[in-house]
Amino acid sequence: MQSRLIKTNTTTQHVWEAGSGPLVVFCHGFPELGWSWRHQVEAVAAAGFHAVAPDMRGYGGTDAPQGVEAYGVLNLVGDMVALVQALGETEAVVVGHDWGAPVAWACALLRPDMFRAVACLSVPFNPRRANRPPIPTFRAMAKAMGKDFYMLRFQEPDAEVEFAADVEKGLTTAFWSYDGATPDDRRGSGFLEPGVSFLGAMGEGATRPPWMSAEDLKVYVDAFTAKGFTGPINWYRNMDRNWELGAFHQDKTVSVPALFMVGENDPVRGYSGSGEAELEQWVPDLRGKIVVPGAGHWLQQERPEVVNEALIGFLKGL
After folding, report:
1. Catalytic site includes residue 216
2. Which of 234, 262, 286 is the last residue of a domain?
């Protein structure tokens, strides 16, 4: 696996890549990097594909434009289109995890001519719902529970401050709190007690998950220390704007072949469960829907062998 900078017509992107053959592009989520796909890049390359995992817009070695509106999903899809073109290709399979999953689903939804198949981890496809912008929906859900929700906190102008105050502690806590190996009574849910911060809700005692080496953690800490958290959290600040700009694909289904995987203990299932239950309705060529026993949110790092086997089988079956 090698790294390099690729200048596209939207941003200069830092990527990890290996192999040659049909192109497979990997989109990471929050708070991660292209490095999060290290196990898949090498395995997919060894299986006969050109695997490319960029640091997404605002992360790591990729450009971080100024302004909240620069981080809308249409910008992010545009980055992936531009990356495919800069690599000299006309089509690719797109793979996404966490926030990278909505980007990957949107790539397949909006540019099926380029993105010939899609595989997503953790976050299922959620179609645009009429009169249901996401932030008011989450606010109503949280209010009914007497709690706050972390995505609501991320709308606040100083949401990144608690992460930036101690980058290593913030990242360690975030990874630990959504990990499958964390005890059930300590694992985060996304819902917070009023007045308690996102990291404060996890309490003390967070440690590196068993799948993350000290060297891996340092890659993340160095990247976020250098770049900060404003760009990544701006993705969340565009959620309602994404809904407003998405009316043109209301009720549209994902037409390309698809694969979905999720950890059994992934907290995201607690607030995206309807999307998982309705996946076959909105993704008619769904070729796999896999729940990994005992796994949490960071599926491709927690269970790389399981993910690699399913992903390579999906790719070779296209």
Report:
1. no
2. 234
